Amino acid sequence: MDREELKKRTKEFALGVIRVVGALPPTIAGKNIGNQIMRSGTSVAANYRAACRARSRAEFAAKLGTVVEEADETAFWLEIIDEAGILPKERIELLLKEANELSAIFVSSRKTASKSAIINHRSKLGDGR
Fold this sequence. Notes:
Layout: H1 3-23, H2 28-52, H3 57-83, H4 89-125
C-alpha cells in the first residue's frame, strides 16, 4: 500500500470516527468519550499527512510514532464504547478492526523507517556496520 492509498484510508477512518461520534448519546460519558475519540481518530489522518511531509527518514519514523499512538488510543475508546454498552458492537466493530489494522501497518512502517534512518546515518558517518 503506497502513501496516497494510506492517506485515503486514514481519511476514511477519520470520517468513520466522526460518524460514530455523531451516534453517541448526549450523556456526560457520551460527550467526554466523543471528544476524546474525535481528537485521536482524526489525528491519525492528520498526523500521517504530516509524516508524509517529513524532511528525513528519522523525522518520518518519529511522526509515525504519533500516528501509532493516536490509532491505539482510538482503538481503546472504541473498546470502551463497546464494553460500556454505549453503542451496539455492530456499530463500532469495523472501525475497531480498522484502528487495529492501521496500528499494525504503522508500527511496521515505523520499524522499517527507523532501520533505514539508522543505516543512512551510519553510511554518512562512514561506519559500515
